[in-house]
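User: Teach me something about this protein's shape.
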Amino acid sequence: MPDSTLPLVYSCSGCSNVAQLANTLALRLDRAGLAEMSCIVGVGGHVAPLVNKARSGRRILALDGCPLQCVEACLNQHGLHANVHLILSHHGLRKRYGEDCTEEQSDELFEEIKRLIVGEDCEEKNRIIVAAETMV
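Assistant: First, the predicted structure itself:
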């Protein structure tokens, strides 16, 4: 049974390298017991049980691959905003098709995300992420 104190993590899962990395990172967070992965397509598709889970008041971590920000857009349809929103292409990765990100890139971002969700207050972390993204 999922731990309702864990943040929900939603990820992009499009066809680019950064999209697939977002999905991989969400799976890793889920499997490590650091977050509960839920389905952003269900939220965007207005599937009631998945929308209700998103609206449950739990912290939300959104992992978007690129500046299109599809995950955040799906949440916004329901008046929701992620507590922590990462756009992977703002973290030194270039969006590409037909290739994957490296395991090293995955490991580096996984460690960064772990530091963000374990420890200090989530709202403070969100301010840090937004500030870092505006500098890129």
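Now, about its shape. Residues 127-136 have pLDDT under 50 and may be disordered. Helices lie at 17-31, 40-44, 48-54, 70-76, 103-117, 122-134. If you'd like, I can walk through any region in more detail.
User: That's plenty for now, thanks!
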